[in-house]
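Quiz preparation item.
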């Protein structure tokens, strides 16, 4: 069975970027937070700023789960949950700290 376009994209991306897969998830989450605050003009203090990163991580993991089922015959929920957490935990910490006034006025 062939590799999906999504998996080929990930393999190509990881061959260019000298980072582990877990680190890429962290960067994707922070980038999504920055995009939400800059392009959508959402304040960093807003929990709504977390929604694009959460949506993106769920989409990425849906594609991974689809490929897992196709290649392995079963779903690797533990790996997908870890990836969703890796993508969203640092942005959540940033938003919580901003809400508590950690970053100033």
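Solution:
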């Amino acid at each position: 069975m062939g590799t999906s376009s999504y998996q080929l994209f990930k393999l190509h991306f990881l061959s260019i970027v000298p980072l582990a897969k877990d680190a890429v998830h962290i960067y994707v989450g922070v980038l999504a937070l920055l995009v939400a605050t800059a392009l959508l003009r959402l304040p960093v203090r807003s929990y709504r700023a977390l929604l694009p990163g959460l949506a993106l991580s769920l989409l990425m993991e849906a594609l991974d789960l689809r490929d897992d089922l196709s290649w392995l015959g079963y779903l690797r929920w533990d790996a997908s949950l870890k990836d969703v957490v890796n993508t969203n935990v640092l942005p959540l910490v940033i938003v919580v700290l901003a809400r508590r006034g950690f970053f100033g006025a």
